[in-house]
Amino acid sequence: MLRRDYPDQICSIAKSLEVIGERWSLLIVRDVFNGHRRFGEIQTSLGVARNVLSARLQRLVDEDILERRRYQENPARYEYFLTEKGLDLWPTLIALLNWGDRYSPTPGGPPKLIRHKECGGPVSERGICEDCGKVLHARDAIQVPGPGRLAAMAGAGAAESA
Amino acid sequence: MLRRDYPDQICSIAKSLEVIGERWSLLIVRDVFNGHRRFGEIQTSLGVARNVLSARLQRLVDEDILERRRYQENPARYEYFLTEKGLDLWPTLIALLNWGDRYSPTPGGPPKLIRHKECGGPVSERGICEDCGKVLHARDAIQVPGPGRLAAMAGAGAAESA
DNA sequence: CCAATCAGTTGCTTGATGCAACCGAGTGTG
DNA sequence: CACACTCGGTTGCATCAAGCAACTGATTGG
């Protein structure tokens, strides 16, 4: 999306976008939220060019949004995890998810539903449990495939898209 | 940020980013939230190239996020306003604002504060009034310059940056 | 008549992205 | 043992988007 910086902008929105506003960045974060942790996994899920993915992952690690952990030596292999800073992007993702659900609807219904881990209640646009009323954070929620997702999978067996 | 589209992604986040994920798009929306309505106003506030601003505005109008109204004939002059769809980006902007406030802090404190129009209470990260507890929407809130903004203005008299 | 305002458009250059091929270490298969 | 495959990248090259400056067209003000 963005080159990277927005000089002269005294604005926290611009500052956020400098960090996560580049093309693919937020989708990579979303993928890690979805449980994809490895380079190849994210690459095939997103269809992003490998050099770009490499650059974005490095940036996200540099910005302390992701953490790169070695899960195997010889050959060295890595997995990416969300830091607290990364987890705190959850409200942003929820807001985008809901806006997309509303204005770019998937045929058959929302492709992804968010539920409160504790009580199972649906999670509102603002990340609040509609059953128990709690203001939730990333760790309090789980995702389940929604009707739109299931419909799409029934239509085309492949296409693992998140 | 983004070229434009993320094919094969069955995901409302990706769909949202296809619409507003391009470089400058969200900052243009933010500017209109801030009361900038005219081409030149937005251009100088953002420092975006004029051809790019032109393209983004057209896209945002095509996507029904902004509305272009003629405020003068001969020569024809236009202003841009947020539609309901555009106003519904408010929670996303609030989420980005708060994430930026937290992780890319402006020296002196947040540059922008959001308050509930009705009761004057501060607005939380989720767009909820911390005084009266209401879940707010774009029209319920106003912005006031925060300490970081005032500090920056005192330092450099110019720099109208939003 | 000349300069300025406003909302763009046009042309050219620079920079980011996409694509395919390659690398290096190790595993699995015949 | 040779060969193919996996994984996590890097490299080179072509293409597409963004940045910059100049220009247009209509109108007002001096």
Major β-sheet annotation of chain A = 2 strands, antiparallel
- Number of helical segments with 4 or more residues of chain A: 7
The average pLDDT value of chain A, as a whole number, equals 90
| Termini Cα gap of chain A | 20 Å
**Proportion of β residues of chain A?**
5-15%
Quick structural gist:
The structure is a homodimer of 162-residue chains. Chain A contains seven helices and four strands.
Q: Could you characterize the architecture of this molecule?
A:
- The structure is a homodimer of 162-residue chains.
- Chain A is α+β, with helices and mostly antiparallel strands and 162 residues long.
- Chain A has helices spanning 12-20, 25-33, 39-46, 50-62, 84-87, 90-103, 147-155, and strands spanning 66-72, 77-82, 112-116, 141-145.
- In chain A, a hairpin with a 4-residue loop joins strand 1 (66-72) and strand 2 (77-82).
- Chains A and B meet through helix 1, helix 2, helix 6 and helix 7 of A and helix 1, helix 2, helix 6 and helix 7 of B.
- The structure holds a DNA duplex (30 and 30 nucleotides).
Layout of secondary structure:
The structure is a homodimer of 162-residue chains.
Chain A: H1 12-20, H2 25-33, H3 39-46, H4 50-62, E1 66-72, E2 77-82, H5 84-87, H6 90-103, E3 112-116, E4 141-145, H7 147-155
Antiparallel strand pairs in A: 1-2, 3-4
Chain B binds a DNA duplex (30 and 30 nucleotides) through α3 and α4.
